[in-house]
Amino acid sequence: MTATSTRTASPPVPSAADLDHFRADPLRALPRLFERYGDPFCVPSQAGPMVLTADPATCEQIMKRHLDRGPLHRRTEPAQGPGITIQSGEEWRRTRAMVSPLFTHRHLKALSDLVADGARRGLDRLSAYAGTGETVDLMAFMPSVTMGVLMHAMFSDSLRPGEMEAMIADYAHISRWKGGLIRTAFEAPGTPVPGEREGIAARDRIDEVIYRVIAERRREGVARHDLLQLLVDARYEEDGSELSDEDVRNNTTTLFIAGFDTTSFGLCWTLAAAMTSGRGLAPLVECAEQLGGRLPGVDDIPRLGYLKAAFDEGLRLQGHPFIPRQLETDETIGGYRLPAGTMVTMSTWVLHRNPALWERPHEFVPERYLGEEGAGRSRWQSLPFGGGPRVCIGINFAYMEATYVLALLLGRYRLELDPGWELRPAYVFNVILDGGLPVTVTEASSSSTVTSAG
Asked: Domains in the chain, ordered, with CATH?
């Protein structure tokens, strides 16, 4: 909300009791804090006072003008390295200009078969549960699918037996470590970081694999059509220089960390929200069955638009409590004049549930992303991939991957939630489903195998 005059005082700071609640359970605390203290308000952190907002106009203002993610996000550098999501200023602009061409329509089209085949391979493993009546936790299972897709698209045939499975487990350790680094920013200095020891060991094991494959690519000189080859072959536009091995490693790791759990947990939210809605999975299954049992390709994406809308709606409901920026210049936010260097954190967890912006905000309604309603909605109401110049560079890859996974999963299998399961959110680094997503699986009668794209 934009005030008509500028106030000189700082935004309000919650009481000690409210701050304790915020630190212990940010997802449940944040809506109450915005209601009680207004938008924006301020919380203390190890990075200094942090201003929180969930106003779409303010999100647009900040994301367009202030591109430095600031010290809160830089706390995660030990876990992922100084890749593009950490960088700022000219370093970020240089890397962005170099990496952006990797995600053009031409390159995504070339990667489409790898993405579809990677999704098929991952989902094939569900057949072990089909018809057994045994419960499988999709929230534990899905990261292996999305990470497998990324691994296949990144390395194609360059990994040794067992390395993919080991790296999938190691990236889960890194994700928990990354979440611990963010959570402890609001605690006293010196607070132990959850998952740090396991994360460091996992990072070192992953680095060993990545550096070995980079060396093999440079030594062999055999062209492959995957993301790693695009990074190895990429050149900085201003001088034509190639990326160092460390640069390739940093951007490889960044793409994995930024990609696999965002897509994985977003898919789980999509499936959970659909299964607990009045219509269940039926509309999504109807869309998926248009493929007739074959692998999807880029030409299928338009006809699978309902699945993309469902994923958008799952991401809306998932949200995120903290998307940070650091003010590069003085800025007026919500009527408060804030000095350069102030941390401003946008909460899409609250923004995406604002009843003033969304009709039936807690319900799963993919149709709100389609047709006239979708076209007429403000771009700044729904920000699962951020916005402005720092919008997620892999957004179109994520949509392709999610659409393909949903199409193959729901075209082949039927899912049934365990009785009594309830959708309860929990915050680690992403917003996950507390208690997982337990389902039983059966093969769809129409198809038990998937053939190649037509």
From this structure: 1-68+320-351 (3.30.43), 69-319+352-443 (1.10.630.10)
